[in-house]
Amino acid sequence: RLASGMGEAGGLWSPYLSSCATIGGLLVSNLALLGAALLLLDMGRRRFGERTGLWAACLLLIAPNAVFLSGVYTEAVFLLLALLVFWLLERGRFWLALAAACAAALTRTVGVALVPALLLAAWADDVPVPRRWLRMGAALLPGAAFAAWVFGSGLFVGDPLAYFSAYDGIWGRSSSLLDVVRVYTSEPVALFGWYPSWLDLGAALGYLALALWVLLGWKQRTWGLFALFAVIIPIASGSLVGMTRFGAVIFPVYLALAGGIERPGRAWKLAAVALPSLALALLFLSRFVTWRWIA
């Protein structure tokens, strides 16, 4: 509301409140995206070097699904908070990282994916055992915050399970992995579209492979755990609709791709990333502006 400039006297940006809300949403999302790019740059630079950090930030900004990070969606704010969690953990600020994780869990469902990384960080901290167990228990708070929001908002509208009924009735998600198999084996599948599409399936498998590479190949355990659970949670919903959008917040993917570009044979690797990215960006933008996605 503050960014939208809406008050008792009307709107700051426009006489139409809907336009003010849109402009405010764009301001929030793009400022969050800028903050996320700067955090990603700093994390990549500290861990892998200047060029890798720079490439990771660039890949974030030119990725095809950056249209969702720049639009009026919650992905950019979540990405900023998720990056802040790991940025703070690297500096030994566990409790501040925990606060950011709780805020992330209140922003998107996938905020629960931060819990395994927090648990690992809490256990690995060089602190006395009693304090270590205290941190382990506190690391579960993002999950508790999400649960409190789900049931609290449900009670507010008179149905404690409203979140789950809306999940099924509006979005066609049933929290069953078997439905994913059933849909892709028994119904017509389009190349891309609302539901089901090969593009969403490819995004799900691609993000899953990259998450496993970060966890097992790079041996970046906290990043890898977050990436893996951030992929598994939407897949486990029983529908792959929106995987191209949901994957935008999995920041280790940008670092993994940037690290690959920096290795010998950079030219062809850069082309292998940039050319498909450009083609998908044109597809995503054309579908976005023609209302093929919720805009």
Descriptive overview:
This protein has 295 residues and is mostly helical. It is built from 15 helices and two strands. The chain has helices at 17-48, 50-62, 66-70, 75-89, 94-105, 114-124, 129-138, 141-156, 162-169, 177-186, 198-217, 221-235, 243-246, 252-261, 266-289, and strands spanning 6-7, 10-11. It has a two-stranded antiparallel ribbon. A hairpin with a 2-residue loop joins strand 1 (6-7) and strand 2 (10-11). Helix 5 (94-105) packs parallel to helix 8 (141-156). It is globular. The two termini are 19 Å apart. The mean pLDDT is 85.
Fold blueprint:
Elements: E1 6-7, E2 10-11, H1 17-48, H2 50-62, H3 66-70, H4 75-89, H5 94-105, H6 114-124, H7 129-138, H8 141-156, H9 162-169, H10 177-186, H11 198-217, H12 221-235, H13 243-246, H14 252-261, H15 266-289
Antiparallel strand pairs: 1-2
